[in-house]
Amino acid sequence: MAMKGKNCVAIAADTRFGIQAQTVSTKFQKIFELGPRLYIGLAGLATDVQTVSERLKFRVNLYELRENRRVKPKTLLSVVSNLLYERRFGPYFVEPVIAGLDDVTSEPFVASLDLIGCPMVTEDFVVSGTCSEQMYGMCESVWSPDLDPDQLFEAISQALLNAADRDAVSGWGAVVHIIEKDKVTTRTLKARMD
Amino acid sequence: MSRRYDSRTTIFSPEGRIHQVEYAIEAINHAGTVIAINSKNGIFILAEAKRPSALIADKVDNEKIYKLSGCMVGCVAGITADANILINYARNQVQNHLQAFNEPAPVEKIVRQVANVKQNYTQYGGLRPFGVSIVYAAFSREGGFKLYHSDPSGNYASWKSICIGANSSSIIGTLKEKWTPDIDLTGAKNLAFEAYCKPCDVQSISSKNFETMVLTLDSDDKPLFQALGTDEVENLLKENNPIKAS
Q1: Is the model's pLDDT at B60 over the cut of 80?
Q2: Which pTM value belongs to this model?
């Protein structure tokens, strides 16, 4: 999930990799850095999470080499949308979430997409994953506009942990990135390992 | 007499030469100079970007030096339109390697792939060869700082220091004399400007015409690409220009 704050954004994910009921790994990376202030989180089929992030890195690298500048969050949204729609009739089973600060204006940005690339930009938060309904409920309660980085961290952590605790196949560890203009803080949360 | 063997790339002349390839190499000798020097602690590249008219907007995009990946840079001399195709191809190949192997593309592989594309146009299809020479500068964990050069025929080799483009033969002469294995980056910068200025007409040298690139390692031992500032270029020019501009 990702949330907007005052001049900052946060993106968080659990770290479970499971095959139905069996938990295979508790350290699975789902959030990938595509720029100094731009992150994408991918929920869904693990193999597609990894492949989509690699294919996306390919396109973003080429963009940056050709344009000689960093990709904007809004543009990244379009790149991901295009990548996913190319597979309209045999899609990647991922639901991406994008969080970042604009390169030039440092404007916060969050967005999410469905598995065939429908983009959605929101002013508050985005969620995706098996416990998305729980996450919607939690985010709606804890989020308020213009939270500062520390408040945002508390909000997103509580939202993620409590939503994941109400879902049997989510959880087993969590990681949170707080993205501010001058730094990115990454914290691992102490979560219920069940 | 051997004119009849000129017009197609796909035939040899009786002397065993492919004339179209040689004419392509000739075309490059009219293009802007690129000098690249490998030193102990980095690579210095000096490229002359020719300004055919005063109306051309001040440099927005690079014309000579292109970043190919996080550890590799390609400098071109020759027909810019041809160069754009090859640079784009090289960039795509770098990303393909990154996607398949999750590691930075080794420079030799990219050089070889681009060279193979160039060679294709000397043997198949009846299309003219690419009129571009490319100098690659790269850093890798295994090989350190490396310089490669490929010409329109598709031949490539690794070099200690190289010059392509206008005045390349006389500049290579200077480099041969003055390059030593223990030259450092400052020495390389001075050597490049000295070698460039020697065969040149002093009036036409202006610091605005240069694109520069310094490839070193940063504090985390990762490759770092920087261009020289205009002041530094001015200073190096002043120090190494044998005839002071009046």
Answers
A1: no
A2: 0.88
